[in-house]
Every structure is written in C-alpha cells, then in structure tokens.
Input
Amino acid sequence: MYLKNSKTIVIKIGSSLLINENNIIRKKWISEFIKDIKELLKERKKIVIVSSGAIALGCKKLGINKKNLKLDKSQAIASIGQIELMNLFKKNFNSKKINLSQILLTLEDTEQRRRAINAKRTFDNLFELNFVPIVNENDSIATSEIKYGDNDRLASRVAQILNADCLILLSDVEGLYTKNPKIHKDGKLIKEIKNIDTKIEQVARKSIGMHGTGGMKTKIDAAKICQLSGSYMVIANGLLNRPIKNIYQKNNCTWFLPKISKLDARKKWIISSISPKGKLIVDDGAINALKKGKSLLAAGIINIEGKFNKGDHIKIIDKNMNEFARGLSSFNSNEISKIKGQHSNRINEILGYVTKSEVVHKDDMVEI
Output
C-alpha cells in the first residue's frame, strides 16, 4: 500500500547487488531490476536510483582488493570506477529504452540549503525530460571530513530534498530482525516500525560485507531522517530477482513509518529561520495567484527590502505590509531589484544569463 501510493521513489542499491563475492557482475539481477524500474515508470512514478559500486568496479577493473584502501587511493579508484558504473547502467537501461542521467553529490550539496535547492531543481527538470537520475557520492573529491561514507544516509538526504514519498533500501536481508538471522535462527522479521527506540538501536548491529561500507546501523540512521521528513522507508531483500515486484507482492520487508506528514516536514524546514533575510512586497494579483497555489513571479513584485542570497529565507508581504507567506528565494536581492515588475520572459535579457522564471517556487513557499 505504501509503495503503491508513492509518486516519487528513491531506490538505493548496494555494491553487493551489482557484484557478487567472486567479483563477477550480476548481469541477470541488473536485467531483472530494470524490469522493475520499467514497471514503475509505466505507473508514472518519478524514480531516482542511488547506487554504490564505483570503487568496487574500479577495483575490479584494476584487479586490486578493496580492503585497506587509503582515502586518496580510493578517490582515484572511484574516479575510474564511476565510468565503469555508468557504462554498465547505460548499456543495460538503454536496451530497455530508459534514459539515464548522472548526479554526483557531496555532503555539502545536501547540507547547505542553497545547494540542496539547486539539486532539487535539477532533479525536477530531469523528471520533466523523462530521465532517471543515477546518484552517487562524489567519492573522487570527498574527504573524510566532508564525506557521507555510505549511500544509505545519502539516499535519505536525497529523499528529503526531493520531498519523496518513499525510500527503498535494497539490502542482502529482508529487513530488520529481532536478532541477526545469519547467526540466530530464532530471529524474527520486524514488519513495521513507528518509533526508533533504544531496543531498535540495539538490534541494528553493524555488519560489513565484502563490498559494502555500511550495515543495519546506517539504515537506521537513514530511517530517522525519513521519519522526520514525512517519508516512508523500507528495507527489503535486493538479492532477489525483481526485488521491487517482490515488495509489492509479498511485502516481506521492514517498513519505517513517518512521524509527521511531508507537508508538515516541508513547512517546518521552510519557516524554521528565526530571522528571514529580506522582504518582497507584492501586488494583489500576486497574492491572488499565491492563494491558488501558484509560484511568485517577478511581475507581481512591487518592492524589495533587505540584502539576501539565493536560497535565503524571505518574507512575502502584501501592499498593506501584512505578511502573507515565507519562502526560499530563487534569486539574490540584487537580481530581484533588476527584474521586479517585469514579465518572466524578460528575465534572461535583463540579467544577461539564463535562469529560472519563478522568484519563489510554490514548493519553496509556506503561507503564514
């Protein structure tokens, strides 16, 4: 039910799903997985794939062991492996007429609000172009201080940025058990988790595979982010052929339920600023458009107060100086001063470079 009702889905696949313990690419699994993606796209769902595997594929190409790699060496190998990874995906996905794009992110891209907004815009435009983004951490430049280190948490941040409905973490087990099923035969699968308490933390023992860099602990960390983002998250067995279909049909997995709605999470994020950096005074026509759920365009802006950068919190004020909404600006204050009152089709001409048409996008705005 949770997956069926989801419109935007982030799917994380680990290295062990692409390459087996003998360093052989699992071609059959990839082919079956693409069938799942094809079905989701037919249902008009927006899909993002967060994939590990760059370093593992780099090691495979060079014939070296991944264990005990130093960071600077792993960065170079990631650079080599990233091409191998995308070539692998492109060859297989294109055969099913699925268009792919690539997005490499660092920790700062998801933690800094301005950069997160830019990333979201890129994802949205790719969806409109009917492309499936493949996301990975930019291991070739990330240092230990600014590095996620695992793609579970990266995937949860991507889901948060996208305001996604669901994050699927495909693992080598069905989900979270009361005890490690590989050691204890009496371990039972936990089907749903509403609250991540100390008991849940205790059963999430870290287990590192041959290629993977995380375990159940990182998946619990990802679940915490999703729960506070209003997103569902599921841990499911990815080693099966057609893993997504298996979730639909058997639901033999662990679901983490959101603590708050996506709307509440988004509102909290947008209006969390204690001191918005500026104000936009808008006309009645703009107010009426905003009430109908439209974005704020330059034509409706009468005046501007304050100095602020792209991505900063700002207030939207009516001409009687009453606060109507708060939002995240798509332009800095200097740019808005130049384009206020102008039709959107003149923005690029006035500023001298190509940019967006919405001053505050409807997704980045909350009515007070």
About this structure: Confidence is low (pLDDT under 50) at residues 206-214. The chain has two domains: 8-266, 273-367. Residues 111 and 157 are 9 Å apart (CA to CA). Residues 273-367 form a domain with the Archaeosine Trna-guanine Transglycosylase; Chain: A, domain 4 fold (CATH 2.30.130.10).
